Amino acid sequence: MQRRLILSAIAFAAFGAGLAKADPIGEWRVADGNATVQIRKCGGAYCGFVATTRTAPGRDEKNPDPAKRSRSVLGIEVLINLRPAGNNLWTGTTYNAEDGQFYSAKVSLQSERALQIQGCVPNSTLCGSETWVRVK
User: Fold this and answer.
1) Burial, 104: exposed, middle or buried (Cβ in 10 Å; 0-12, 13-18, 19+)?
2) CATH 2.30.30.60 holds for 24-134
3) What is the pLDDT of residues 20-59, one digit of tens each?
4) Of 4, 29, 111, 122, whose CB is crowded by the most CB atoms within 10 A?
5) Segments making up each domain of the chain, as ranges
């Protein structure tokens, strides 16, 4: 019994240490399953781009910049300038192509397979969040 407890403690410590040093790099399926976002290093920060869509990608029709409204949503940056803000936590900006708005973003790694994305209206307490799942 004691040996099993020791092995469990070692496994827990190894997982905890791994998560403590983890980052959000990788491909993540958004909550509704309609797209994946590829997160990578962009200079001294992280950024995320739409990598795939379940159906034919739409256009960025609600973008505040009229010149960008005809571009495909595939490849657009939706997580912008994410910088460390704590253990497994990053803050920056997120862009929502569905409404053409930018939001303050808080991204937190919940586990190796779960990433919580929170977007808030700037200078407001109005927020929404969802959990993305890592694509293998």
Assistant:
1) middle
2) no
3) 558 899 999 999 999 999 999 999 999 999 999 999 999 9
4) 29
5) 24-134
